[in-house]
Amino acid sequence: MAERMELAKDYTISRVINGCWQLSEGHSLKSKIDKKDVMKAFHMLAEQGFTTFDCADIYTGTEELLGDFQTELKSGSTLSPQDIQIHTKYVPDINLLDKVDYSYTEKIIDRSLKRQKREVLDLVQFHWWDYNIPGYLETAYDLLKLKEKGKIRNIGLTNFDTKHLSEMVDAGIPIVSCQNQYSVFDRRVEKELLAYCKSNGIHLLCYGTLSGGLLAETWIGKTQIDPDNRSQVKYIQVMEETLGWEGYQELLVLLERMASKYSVSLAHIATKYIISQEGVAASIIGVRNSKHVEANSNIFSFELDQSDIDEITQFLSNFTILEGEPFELERTEGSKFRNIMKMNLNEN
Ligand SMILES: NC(=O)c1ccc[n+]([C@@H]2O[C@H](COP(=O)([O-])OP(=O)(O)OC[C@H]3O[C@@H](n4cnc5c(N)ncnc54)[C@H](OP(=O)(O)O)[C@@H]3O)[C@@H](O)[C@H]2O)c1
Q1: Among 15, 100, 189, 328, which residue carries the largest CB count within 10 Å?
Q2: pTM, whole model, 2 decimals?
Q3: What class, spelled out in words, does domain 4-339 have in CATH?
């Protein structure tokens, strides 16, 4: 069964969260999503204790999919909608940031409630594309008002850096979690954010742990990757800037050696390494189908020895960490990390 942790008072989550970006329209560059198989995967995951799901207002179709999943849970399952946790996001379009006000925010939150068929949103993770456009603090207060009104249970952030996260905390916004990219490819959170989260009781929820599937046996010995989806496009960029192709291949071999030792897969070692870091509450693993569900149920069947954790850390210390704070390159005008992102998806 999946390990659990208390994210907030009386609110627990599974330490591996089922990510739903992979199910949104526009994520895939080639293959199509089979909804029936996805529902099968959701049931299998929830029954194995992987009860927490991560979606977003801008991941087209995913909040509705989770709403449909709950309808299925109501009829003929041992689990009920109350047994699952749905983490969504509030990501106002960059073109609208200067117009965001209470009524706009409430409209988006009400839309998420309707799509998810929920009375209250378990966790709303707030994202703000551009700190130079004022309004993020006011919007966070509006989310707090909606929490007080009973529409939101917990407030989190996503892709915030340490400075702006601390601004929120100092302003009295009760932030329970911060969702950021953290993997053996991208260790920017280790510079400052992770320590800040630890000392302020904020839980880090990590995405990118498997780098869109690049952390898998299948890439050992290959000389290039033809990306299948938008995650892979992004993580190839990250890998090229940090490990480089040679370092990536060496890392795969190292992780595979450890995987054989524990009789698990390379992806499990990559995940376990991240969730073993102090301050990390959970890792989010993208689900596209039922293919990996059975294997991934083994993630909690073993513990990484400290010597193996140390060996991976030692290996990574030979390579450069991405420049800046978490999500800083993604916010920088002209950067290739920013150029691949879509920032106006909410009003579609
Ligand atoms: N806040 C944000 O800005 C943000 C950004 C990105 C993602 N996220 C969240 O994080 C989630 C994860 O997204 P991600 O882009 O970081 O992807 P990821 O979780 O690093 O990669 C997911 C892919 O890994 C592969 N995989 C899964 N289990 C595996 C296993 N046991 N062995 C080998 N491969 C395995 C699958 O690829 P195949 O299907 O190809 O086999 C799957 O589609 C998203 O769904 C979303 O919820 C949030």
Answers
A1: 189
A2: 0.97
A3: alpha beta
